[in-house]
Design goal:
With 382 residues, the chain is mostly helical. It folds into 2 domains: 224 residues, Rhopdopsin 7-helix transmembrane proteins (Up-down Bundle); 66 residues, no CATH class. The chain has 13 helices and no strands. Helix 1 packs parallel to helix 9, helix 3 packs antiparallel against helix 5 and helix 3 packs parallel to helix 7. The longest helix has 45 residues. It is globular and about 80 Å long. The termini are far apart.
């Protein structure tokens, strides 16, 4: 993931050898790097596309999700889907060839635009959440909430404008030029993209996430003061412990996302800078691995956020509960007393899913322990 476009070698995604000819300065065959890039990016792209479609359908089929936050997140998922679809085309950008002007610019500019739009939408989602939590009483007055269509238009129009600057004339294309990233993206453009937009956007999202956790910690302390004043010197209540545990999970999740997703992305950006400078220590294999892993890890962030939101997956959990209820009804009609261990496991699972959907947000996903799970199966058997 060398950069916003996810293509090896720079922010435009092309490998960092100065010639653009297959292979690198280390002499690694171009076909080997293409196969490596395909096997790294192909499965990851399929996973990103399917996961985004899964979450999008869950949001669209939930009639309760029609607020500003849902529209921002839907736009993010669509941008992430396009970014995932661009990952398998990374090998085509690693070599200099005789493509024409229009095809060459499309192959380089389109992936760059997809990843820039993805990052802009992710920044908008973080900003909307930051305003909602930090200023809950004034949130409805902010333009982000009042002018959602305009905000969504900006998150797509500004990346498109920046990505099209090479098409508008900021390039090194000549009458006899071959298709390579050196001809499409000037060095100044690449540095501006990396250090003027990508790195500041990541730092801004990290700052807003930290501020959200700080506000949550302050509210947690206020709640604990109220609870302790009511209990008059008694020990910590179960509610206090649950709130502390939930806050600790949020901190751990944020730290894990930053380490697993953003650290490889930032590392790939700096490897891209070395490749732009024709650093001899960067071979093709290193460049391809950092590009594919970095771009893919960044594109997984919306999937993690979507799967971690209960309302975004409520439709699928309800569908699973209905399916289990139907299977349970058929099993009870054909064999009313399941004596096998498999029957007990299936019955317990269906019962636990039904109970969790009835309890809703008051029952976390891991509320039923293994003992309760099999007790539910035994009750169903009886």
């Amino acid at each position: 993931m060398a950069n916003s476009s996810g293509v090896p070698g720079n922010s435009s995604g092309v490998p960092g050898n100065s010639s653009g000819v297959p292979g690198s300065s280390s002499g690694v065959p171009g076909s080997s790097s293409m196969r490596l890039s395909f096997w790294l990016s192909g499965p990851l792209a399929v996973f990103i596309i399917l996961a985004n479609l899964f979450i999008v359908l869950g949001i669209l089929c939930n009639r309760k999700l029609h607020g500003a936050a849902s529209w921002f997140f839907l736009s993010l998922l669509f941008a992430d889907l396009l970014a995932g679809a661009a990952l398998p085309f990374i090998p085509q950008m690693q070599f200099e060839d005789s493509r024409g002007y229009h095809r060459c610019f499309f192959i380089h500019v389109a992936p760059n635009f997809f990843f820039l739009a993805f990052l802009a939408n992710l920044l908008a989602v973080h900003y909307e959440k930051y305003l909602c939590i930090s200023y809950p009483l004034h949130y409805h007055r902010f333009w982000v909430h009042r002018w959602v269509p305009l905000c969504l238009l900006l998150t797509w129009a500004l990346p498109l404008l920046f990505a099209c600057l090479p098409v508008l004339g900021w390039n090194h294309w000549g009458p006899s030029s071959n298709c390579s990233y050196h001809q499409v993206f000037p060095t100044a453009y690449l540095y501006l993209e990396i250090y003027g937009f990508l790195i500041p956007s990541i730092l801004a999202m990290a700052f807003m996430s930290t501020q959200v956790l700080r506000v949550a910690r302050h509210q947690l302390q206020e709640i604990k003061k109220v609870l302790r004043s009511v209990r008059q010197g008694e020990g910590p209540s179960d509610l206090e412990q649950q709130l502390e545990l939930r806050h600790a999970k949020c901190i751990a999740s944020l730290s894990l996302i930053f380490l697993v997703c953003w650290v490889p992305y930032v590392a790939g950006l700096h490897v891209s800078v070395l490749a732009i400078q024709n650093h001899r220590s960067i071979d093709t294999y290193t460049l391809v691995i950092f590009t594919c892993v970095g771009s893919g890890s960044a594109a997984v962030v919306p999937i993690i956020l979507g799967l971690g939101h209960r309302q975004y997956t409520q439709f699928w959990r309800d569908a699973a509960a209905k399916g289990c209820a139907g299977c349970r009804a058929r099993c009870s009609s054909s064999s009313p007393r399941p004596h096998t261990a498999a029957g007990l496991v299936i019955a317990g699972f269906c019962t636990s899913v039904g109970l969790q959907n009835k309890l809703g947000s008051h029952a976390p996903a891991n509320q039923m322990s293994g003992r309760s799970f099999f007790r539910a199966g035994l009750r169903f058997r009886e």
